Amino acid sequence: MKKPLNSSSQSSPKYKILHIGAEVTPFSNVGGLSSVIAYLSKSLLKKGHDVRIFMPRFSFIDEKQFPMEMVFEGLAVPTGYAEGDGKPTELICNIRKHVTEDGIIVYFLENMEYYEKRSNVYNYSDDHVRWALLSYGALQFISEKLDWKPDIIHSHDWHTALVPNIVATKYRTSPFFEDIATVLTIHNIHFQGKSVDPSSELNFDDGKSQIPKFFSGRLKTLNFLRRGIIYSDLVNTVSNGYARQILTREYGSGLDKLLTELRSKLFGVINGIDYEKFDPLTDPLLPANFDINSIDARSENKLSLQKEFGLKEKAEVPLIGYVGRLDQQKGVDLLLEVLEKFLKDFNAQFVLIGSGDNGYEKAAQRLAKKFPQIVGVHTFPNFTLPKLVFGGADMMVMPSRFEPCGIVQMEAMRYGAVPIVRATGGLDDTVTDFDPATLNGTGFKFKDFDGWSLYGQLVRATETYRNKETWRKIQENAIRQNFSWTEVASKYEDLYKTAIHYKQEGFFHGDLFEL
Ligand code: GLC
């Protein structure tokens, strides 16, 4: 992968950065991108940048917990229709703001119909309208109603990928946007705004036509992500490994050719984890706190984990954990199938926390029924239990089909749970395979997405576990890794510097994408 410009070599400039995203922790927590936006913002702020966030005001965001102040009432966002078309010519929104405990200003776009009336963040048939409104609303608000101008507008995933498109077209001649660089982070290339079917040429969006009106059927067929890639000044994804993978047909979900063409503006930056929120020494959710010098204390956590899940309370039985969405991407099908065999052959326990696909939830519950006191399953969202798993389980398994970054493996390592992962994307970048000869390595990896490969690593891990000294060494190696956001934020500083440079030089706009 290409290296961005190095901002730390000279006196590093301080930027004004606006993140626009569908969801942000702690206001909503569906996907990994919500924590990325929150923690990246926090670390950039600590480095002296002026960081603000723009997101929808969902009804489930509790105003008692997050007090909000009205900043603008009656923002009329044009929908593209004229009077007499029988469609609303504009959608009326309000903007509220909340300042986080770290001092980040978060703007909330308020609209009854599209955000407040919905109890979920995603998966409505008019999502394309909801995210188009967010993108247009954000740009209109900052350019017309706010006395603050960002140097960088940073969008995330397909939901806000229209932002660079709107900046480069609607606002093409606007002096306000003249020197603002746009950055797009791809957290998951599989979701593009329309259902991904690379084989279908029908309704193919080449990304260069005008953005359709809000309620036209064409908006639905738009490939938001493709447009974001085309029009942004710089694109990055959440690991180097995934940045390389999405250039291939196998992982590119139909965008590999475009990305290969534009690869000089494509970068990979691995995500981090928040070292204050994720610290086994101070975590109030752990019965026993510990650090690298007191790893033994984990056994108390393991016993309460076993108790919590109704497993046999035995410190010496290896306990494997899974925490995450239950979907195809994560390889849950492979995991459940292999565990059925593995748990018959080996003395081990398994706990799972996750929700998602109904079929996988049922399959996990079936496994728990089949292996009482050996398998424990929680198939509902839970924000506290995962910490007990990280701090008490011996291993965490992640057999993903693909994994742009993956956060759980980093959280697990920080808490001394040894990862067993498929060597793909960010999992491959963050976990090094244990080498018994040198005692180096932080976990166990397998390459091919098949049952025997996973089975093999489950056996390797649980057999190695029997050697206490060796196991302790792997845990120490894992805990010593540095995945803090502070490190990652400096890589984003370099990206921003590069994006501004590209924007100034006009590298990716102009004739090539002239409309
Ligand atoms: C998506 C990816 C995951 C990544 C996260 C945050 O959820 O699937 O791998 O860690 O985004 O970037």
UniProtKB/TrEMBL annotation:
Pathway listed for it is:
Glycan biosynthesis; glycogen biosynthesis
List this protein's GO terms for biological process: glycogen biosynthetic process
Q: Does the keyword Transferase apply?
A: yes
Q: Using the UniProt record, name the top-level EC class of this enzyme in a single word.
A: transferase
Domain named Starch synthase catalytic is located at 16-260
Q: Which family does it belong to?
A: Belongs to the glycosyltransferase 1 family. Bacterial/plant glycogen synthase subfamily.
What name appears for this protein in its UniProt entry? Glycogen synthase
Q: What is its EC number?
A: 2.4.1.21
Q: What does this protein do?
A: Synthesizes alpha-1,4-glucan chains using ADP-glucose.
Q: Which GO terms describe its molecular function?
A: alpha-1,4-glucan glucosyltransferase (ADP-glucose donor) activity; alpha-1,4-glucan glucosyltransferase (UDP-glucose donor) activity
Does the record carry Transferase as a key word?
yes
Report which reactions are catalysed by this protein.
Answer: [(1->4)-alpha-D-glucosyl](n) + ADP-alpha-D-glucose = [(1->4)-alpha-D-glucosyl](n+1) + ADP + H(+)
> Where are its TM segments located?
none
